[in-house]
Amino acid sequence: MNQTGQEKAVNSFYAEQAAEKESVWKRIGRFFLRAFLLLLETVLLLAIVLYAAMFILARGPSPAIRSIFVNSVRETSAVGFLAKLYFTDEQIAEIESVKPTEEFAPTDTSLFTEREAEETGADGRPQPDAWGYIDEDGDGIIVEPVKGAGYSGYMMIVLDPSRVIMGSVPASYSYRGYTVEQMVRHFDAVAGINAGGFLDPNGEGDGSIPDSTVVFNGKIYYPNAGCSGGIAALDGEHYLHVAKSMTVKELSDNDIRYAVCYGPVLISNGEPADPETLPMSLNPRTAIGQRSDKAMLLLVIDGRQASSMGASYQDEVEIMQRFGAVNAINLDGGSSSMMWYRGGYINKTASVIGIRPVPTSFLVLKEGVAG
């Protein structure tokens, strides 16, 4: 059947409309394809630049920088694989190797004295203690900012050591971890920091399973897991014991009420750790120490940030010495390093996915409540 002129015009109109729509979709498709290719090219370029930058750090002429690079990433479960992009397992083991640590002598309690009553001046205001720090508000807690070359953080001085406990919820092991904030609230405390490590395969651990021995309220959990790098232990008289490890018998003989394992030991009986035994790395850090007047020292250092790359173990030693520590030990760091005080976190997390849950913490109880 022959089409009329009007029918041909209508069909031509719809054909033109269809062709125009097809042309629009083709243009949209070409736009998104170009955008995708540009994004892919940018990502590849950034990856190449990042790989080249890390290659210079890892394989450059400086052994110190090489050691810092390898040890720093190897302390981070999520990106520990980066070291294997540049080195064999044998080379990594050689870089990570340090002088073996000798056994530390048992804690010498004669190095401590009970804290004297706080002195006040003629105006009734509190005076600096022997280390120059003042409890301005009289709550028994002093928080001081700490800064150094490439790092910043906070030191919390708890004047009454009986207020410091290791907070944990053994009933939740294997199915739930707690953030430091949740630990503080669970124990009705006023401050806290993270403590020991936990099983963290591929950086995806939920903070529910300690990776080493834990002592909570005098009961030992995971005794067969042992301690790999060190132990921080609080006894019934509120002394902080630090050691490479402690046997079940030693825990019992020393009346250990709370303990977590991590390390390395930073200061033992007033003697700083041999720098040659401390790996060279920069990361967020957490540590606990005790002054000669038995005041507890809780330290956090921010890291992996433009304003604070992180601290080395030697940095921690020097900070603890500056604050008068007789004993001190490094705790779990990295994305776990957090300090809670007065209703909020006072440092910044290094985690891109939020505050990490942990199985253990060191907490500061309210005044008048002894652990």
Characterization of this structure:
By secondary structure, the protein is α+β, with helices and mostly antiparallel strands. It folds into 2 domains: 5-96; 109-364, no CATH class. 26% of the residues lie in helices and 22% in strands. It contains 6 helices and 17 strands. It has helices spanning 5-59, 63-74, 89-96, 180-186, 248-253, 313-322, and strands at 141-148, 151-158, 164-168, 191-194, 214-216, 219-221, 231-235, 240-243, 256-261, 265-268, 271-272, 285-291, 296-301, 325-330, 339-341, 344-345, 360-364. The chain has a 7-stranded antiparallel beta sheet with strand order 1-2-13-12-14-10-11, covered by helices on one side. The chain has a 5-stranded antiparallel beta sheet with strand order 3-17-4-15-16, covered by helices on one side. Strands 8-7-9 form a 3-stranded antiparallel beta sheet. A hairpin with a 4-residue loop joins strand 12 and strand 13. It is elongated and about 110 Å long. 39% of the residues are buried. The mean pLDDT is 86.
Strand content: 15-25%
Strand order of the largest sheet: 1-2-13-12-14-10-11
Helix content: 25-40%
Domain module count: 2
What separation lies between the terminal Cα atoms? 100 Å
Low-pLDDT segments, ≥5 res? none
Tally of DSSP β-strands: 17
> Which oligomeric form is depicted?
single chain
Principal-axes geometry comes out as elongated
Kindly state the mean pLDDT as a whole number?
86
Radius of gyration: 28 Å
The profile of the biggest β sheet is: 7 strands, antiparallel
Count helical runs: 6
Give the structural class.
alpha+beta
Task: List the secondary-structure elements in sequence, H or E.
Answer: HHHEEEHEEEEEHEEEEEHEEEE
